[in-house]
Amino acid sequence: MFADPLEFAALSLAILQVVVWVDAYTLLPVVRGTVLGLILLSVAALFWTRVGHPYATALRPYRVLAVKREYGEAVTIELAADGHDGLQFEPGQFARLRAPT
User: Fold this and answer.
1) Which of 44, 55, 98, 101 has the fewest beta carbons closer than 10 A?
2) No. of H helices and E strands in the chain?
3) What is the Cα–Cα distance from 54 to 48, expressed in whole angstroms?
């Protein structure tokens, strides 16, 4: 999306300044409040996606028990929760994995 967090911050502040403080598009208080609420919701969602969720998942590590080659380029990785209950998966589901380093 954005190559640089500073670029995202500059664009966000520019939009906030034009839409909210200049009153160019939001003369009615209800519209101004709605736009500000949507901006804050977007920032909260971005924060959760980039900071909150990765940190929360890092607190629930897994150990690799087995790696099995499947047909084609598929691989089955058997994991065990390390210090927590883990997640329950149905056959055919998948998970995105991230190594700690």
Assistant:
1) 101
2) 3, 2
3) 8
